[in-house]
Amino acid sequence: MQEYTSDPLVGTLVDGRYLIQSRLASGGMSTVYLATDRRLERGVALKVLHPHLAGDPQFLDRLGREAKAAARLSHPHVVGVLDQGEDGRVAYLVMEYIKGHTLRDVITDKGALAPRLALALIAPVVEGLGAAHEAGLIHRDIKPENVLIADDGRIKVGDFGLARAVSTSTSTGSLIGTVAYLSPELVLGKQADARSDIYSVGIMLYEMITGRQPFDGEVPIQVAYQHVNSTVGAPSELVPGLAEEIDELVQWCTANDPDKRPVDGNALLSELRHIRTNLSDAELDIQPPAGRSALPAVAAAAATPAGVAASADPWQDRPEGPSEVPPEDHTDQSRTEVIGGIQRPTEVISRGSNPTTVMSAPPRRPAYGPLSAPEEVVPDQETYSDDGLESVPAPASKRAQRKQDRDEERARRRAAATPVRSLRGGNARRRGLLWILLLVVAALLAAGAGWFFGMGPGSPGTIPELANRTVAEAQQLLRTAGFQSTTKDVYDDNVPPGLVVGSEPEAGQVIRKFQTVSLAVSKGPELFPLPELAGKTLDEAKTALNGTGMALGLITETFDESAAAGTVLAQAPRSGNPVRHGTPVDLTVSKGPQPIPVPDVRGQEQDAAVKALEAAGLKAVISPETVNDRKIPKGSVVAQDPASGNLTKGGTVNLTISKGPKLVDVPSFVGKQAKEAREALENLGFEVRVNNILGGFFGTVRDQDPVNTKAPEGSVVTLTVV
Hints:
Helices cover 29% and strands 23% of the residues. The protein has 722 residues and is of the alpha+beta class. The longest helix has 27 residues, at 428-454.
């Protein structure tokens, strides 16, 4: 996979938690990145919305609600929504990261699939949709690009919630979804429900079995027109010999009238499992005609990178190592067209290189619905004569009976999934009166409907601008416009309490007057208590502020004798005070105890040295051992430890006290040579002074002072030499 190293977000940390590693894909609504959740140490798919959506506060509010709804849906076949938020101008969704490929890759590589493989791939998709429909969620953009197949074989449906959020932020006439898979009601701008997803599944199943989409056109609007005005053909027209049940399944899902489709994913799943169980191996393993491509030539070329040949078997020829498949609307394999004011991806359909051909098909069995002909005779089982050499067709009555049994079984299975209505015949005159009565009732209903939708409660009206008005003013404006209203209280950082923040539907929208307008009334900003930060380290305090949505303010450092360096001493505002999200909190942080230079007290008397150290904030400890020193007088400091450097307040300095110079015996050197006497006295530690008489010619000591007594080491001994 190509990595976009020039993307400015690659390498950045989003919301203090998600480290973006690489860019995976880009679509019409967002860009998907591979990121690392640093808090939980796992890989995630980070979907960053494009600026035109991220800059819309109303869209972000809707996206938040849809993301919460999607996050509550936990199912093994649905890509999980893990987180949603904003970091400055970056609005993002965090989704489960799936390593693997998409169903689009399978269709592109393999072309038309055997029914066994197609049903095996579509079943988890339908199961995931069934769980979503049961939870009240509608996907609205089912397509092969949103079906993710993990390397370990798991199949998941991605992008729940995003399509609905985008659709509610656009005009009512816009088409949301890939045009090749849009249901007729979405094309016509009608309300979508679970049956709209079922239609898209039917189109996708048709494409998997036949290798191509049922409708194509030069421009997307032609494809959309065919969804509304044409019916999806039977897949067996392109795959001769395909089981009738698969034809009926596809056409049941893709009925133009939603009432004729399965009611939701669970109803379709039940029928899908029944078909897979009852088809024979030969019917499940029938191979499509050789050479049928998943896409027309132009689309296949656009979907395949230049210089890379499509593998005949994607399960064996796929390059080693997992490919990253984000839950994204992959628009890089298609051309973007403008439909209803929104750019949507549309497959490119080529006519020149793939001409349409009419293929002969075997005799068809009847499909579901009122268009089936009960008189059709279909070749069925054969019976044999007694001698075993000649085969003869079964009697027509038996074939008709077996056909009737099959029809009854199908009707029984689908009764719970599709409403069934029947009209009973009766007396012709009674039917005529009934028709007259129905026409009269219809005329009355038409007149009533004309009044209701023209001038009555059903007439359209435009919601006025209500923001920053009092509730009474807003309600009066709505009554004047013909609307009823309800109120609900919401927090808002910008609108004063008691004033209207906005309405649902929003101002400027046109709705029927019988619809209720909900007013959001401000309760003022939501306040949150500040956490207690004193005693925490600075990093812990930053984490606590991020967790509560507060901002880090000014940091002041000061010395503290009891708190270690980096410890928070105080905060402003104080803990417990209710404040808004984003309020800056100032912190006072300890630099640890203040260092004190150690004074040099060597040579000072003991008392003076102790006072000097205590004055500096230090403690003096006197060593019990005293030492002789010929230079330091008795009672003075000979040594200290430490002698220099810094200590903190109350630090200890050890002092060693002198007991003065040592007393040494002074022997007599009278009558001896002066040189010998000098050397001996200096070795004993004395300082020798020589007085020469008559020039000290003989070099003999005549007199010595002191002599034959004790004298302090280092004192002076005087020699008189002649």
